[in-house]
Fold:
Amino acid sequence: MAVDLLCMGEPMLEFSRLPAEPDGRRLYLEGHGGDTSNAAIAAARQGASAGYITALGRDAAGDSFMRLWAEEGVDTSTVICSPDRRTGIYFITHGPRGHEFLFYRAGSAASAYAPRDVPEDAIAKARVLFASGISQGISETAADAVFHAVEVARRHGVLVAYDTNFRPRLWPAARAAAVIHAAIRQADIAFPGLDDVLALTGLTDLDAILDFYLALGPEIVVLKMGADGAYLGLPDRRLMIPPSPCNPVDATGAGDTFCGSFLARLIAGDAPEEAARYAATAAALSTTGYGAVAPIPRAAQVRAALGR
Structure:
């Protein structure tokens, strides 16, 4: 099946800690995570046809993802199920500095993904390929697989989008910067995160950041700034996208919702400015519930919020 948006990376079963019960117990809400999987679901909820490229363990967590994607309308024809490896999991806790993560992903099926596994025919038929720093940071073979997927996309005229999503627990900043920026040099759309940029480049001035990433080659750069909104950079103009008003409780996956929603609207024909405003509203709405996937809004919710 040909889809508009193919996302590539590692899905992980999620356990998000809820506020303490009156008796002091700490309860965890089971959900689903993984940055590019979240983005695929966000895009699907906005009306785009989306698919996912990954490997899962043939286990309960992997089965849970296959059910989720089926329910969300995300195509799984490019998902590999491995009998020899497991699906990764992670835990979310909340403290004074916001949400914190504890990952169990070493040896996961997705980390064993390699260039030989890349579904070249499916990529050639897509309109956009989306990957991230996490997609490449989980292992050297996964990094090479993303580079191969990007090369296939470019060969067939498929747009490439990339989110920096730097995770220092996965790899040192110097190596991450080299790999991530090499990928962005081949991308049409880049989504650097403000915290990522500081670690990867040391830059803090917003215009200097857009200058840096536009100079790498993308035609569209969207600097994600969390609660401060986003800054859109195009070769001939720039636009600050203010944050959408909301009552946040958990920011997990908000950046992923932004990326998936932006790409969905771009595929639908919106101008980058319109797509960015839409995506900022969708991302804000996603922070009003717990977990990465459950709070991702659908198109009707986003339209209603934009109307307000």
Notes: The domain at 5-297 is CATH 3.40.1190.20 (UDP-N-acetylmuramoyl-L-alanine:D-glutamate ligase). DSSP finds eleven helices and 14 strands in the chain. The two ends are 37 Å apart (CA to CA). The longest strand covers residues 50-57.
